[in-house]
Write a structure and sequence with these properties.
By secondary structure, this protein is an all-beta fold. The chain is built from no helices and 9 strands. The chain has a 3-stranded antiparallel beta sheet, with no helix packed on it.
Length: about 110
């Protein structure tokens, strides 16, 4: 288990980019906060495998209701990473097992 950040480090709603060792390989991870819930995914668009965020390191659309791929505008549901629109519609982001413990976001 690895501590990624404190819950308070993520704005609400908000997102953050992290790198963590997962099974001996470093992986780019995105975290999305909604209230007291945090969702984690690998930072790879299923369309072309590129990072979802642009240089501003933001992962949410303007309404903060969806994860937005900055490359081609694909929209993903926050709660399960399912792509609703865009070139990878019907595919999903790869979820990352995390837990929230005493205000700390931990990679399992």
């Amino acid at each position: 288990m690895k501590e990624l950040c404190r819950l308070d480090d993520l704005s609400d709603p908000g997102s953050g980019a992290f790198v963590a060792d997962m099974n001996g390989a470093f992986q780019a991870i995105l975290l999305i906060r909604q209230g007291h819930q945090v969702f984690g995914y690998l930072n790879n668009c299923p369309h072309i495998g590129a990072p979802l965020n642009g240089p501003d390191r933001n992962f949410l659309d303007r309404t903060a209701e969806f994860i937005l791929c900055s490359n081609h505008g694909a929209l993903f549901r926050i709660e399960d990473g399912f792509c609703l629109s865009g070139p990878c519609a019907g595919k999903s982001l790869t979820s990352v097992a995390i837990e929230l413990r005493d205000g700390v976001v931990i990679l399992k």
